[in-house]
Amino acid sequence: MKLLPQTLCLCLALATGLAAPSHKIQDLMMADHHGPHHAHDDAKPDRCEGIEFDAISLNDKGEMHFFKGHYVWKNFHGEPEPMNSTYKEVYDDDHHDHVDAALRMHYPDSADHHDHMFLFLGDKVFSYYQQALEKGFPKDISEVFPGVPSDLDAAVECPKGECVTDSALFFKGNHVYHYDTSTKTVKSKEWSHLPNCTSAVRWLEHYYCFSGHNFTRFHPVTGAVGLNYPKDARRYFMRCENFGHGSGNTSHDICKDVQLDAVTSDNLGKAYAFRGNFYMRLDTQRDGWHVFPISNTWKEVSGDVDAAFSYDGKIYIIKEDQVYIYKSGPGYALIEGYPKSLKEELGIEGPVDAAFVCGSIDTAHIIKGDKMHDVHLTVTPRRLHKFLPLPFSKVDAAMCGPEGVKVFVGEYYYKYATAEQLAYTKILPRPFKISEDFLNCRH
């Protein structure tokens, strides 16, 4: 189950660079975040020149918007658009030529604000939903977010579970203001160890502070900074020539020639598809498909995997004749004593092709060649207690969920109500395209 290099997409950055601006405009784009901006509308900035963004935020549809002066990039690809094509009201006032900060509010207790996009300019805030300005806006920041200062540098949402309560973080200088959306109270902290965040964003449950053309990952409660930061945004949040990490790939590669190695979901609702040396989250479709090295999350696993399944709050990753067991949750900690041999842990010789567990049933269904072997997970030592022939000569991946069992073979997958139906039905059901029906790639 190897991934062809030409189909691989390391999609933390998905955009192509635009034509370089003139030297004068390039210097202007590198100016201070709150410095003067006098770029003409026909002089489009180039992200790959290393510009400093005014603000970054996801909108209600999960599009990542990058703001700079009079322009906005929508998502990780495409050319910049004039701001007034989407946010016309922001530039009705000639005194404002850039936004200070932006965030998509996580505010489940308020239907009027939840998933709305807020843009901050001076002492005013604009609230947009479905590309329309909310009635009554703009308003004073102090009216909507009491205790939050004006002339902000950056802002970012922080839902409960990642912060103590549903919150928003506002940055000004080296101070951060934690705003509790329920109580409308503010706590201020000084995070002098962080660079001055000129924009900030929450993306796939991680938090990033942007300063210049670099970014730093930080913890939203403590402000602790991750290792090996800052990093160049051009390697991760856009595709730029000669910048490595995202270079040479396009967003469509995920949807082309799809063949999966393993698919599973954990008890926390996070779903994963593995392909070659990389994985992608399946439960974050609104915020886009993005691909990461497997070792970023499961540090002890290098290279591609053969199978994966979840059971009893743990995720099992099978690679060749080894099985790695991780505790589900932030960080995915490897259980002490692992990896172990597949034979010792599950009673079967490796390698295998696929594995899955259905709901709370204590049976792992392990597919090897054209047979499915059942292992009782409550029995020690674990042994194979039966095997059943399958209507496939070889399977790439399999998973079980609320919709039943899905079996992945090449570019297609097949649906079965139960594992027993998979074993005893000899006539193949209707095939579904992985790209179109599983990943919803219809563009």
List keywords for this structure.
7% helix; five-stranded antiparallel beta sheet; 6 helices; 443 residues; mainly beta; four-stranded antiparallel beta sheet
Describe the fold and architecture.
The structure is a single chain. A hairpin with a 2-residue loop joins strand 19 (271-275) and strand 20 (278-281). The strands form eight sheets. Strands 5, 6, 7, 8 and 9 form a five-stranded antiparallel β-sheet that branches. The chain has 443 residues and is mostly beta strands. The chain has six helices and 33 strands. Helix content is 7%, strand content 34%. It has helices spanning 23-29, 141-144, 294-297, 342-346, 419-424, 434-438, and strands spanning 55-58, 64-68, 71-74, 81-82, 101-104, 117-121, 124-129, 132-133, 139-140, 154-158, 167-172, 175-180, 185-190, 199-203, 206-211, 214-218, 231-232, 262-265, 271-275, 278-281, 291-293, 307-311, 314-319, 322-327, 340-341, 354-356, 363-368, 371-376, 384-389, 397-401, 404-409, 412-416, 432-433. The model is unreliable at 1-41 and 245-252 (pLDDT under 50). The longest helix has 7 residues, at 23-29.
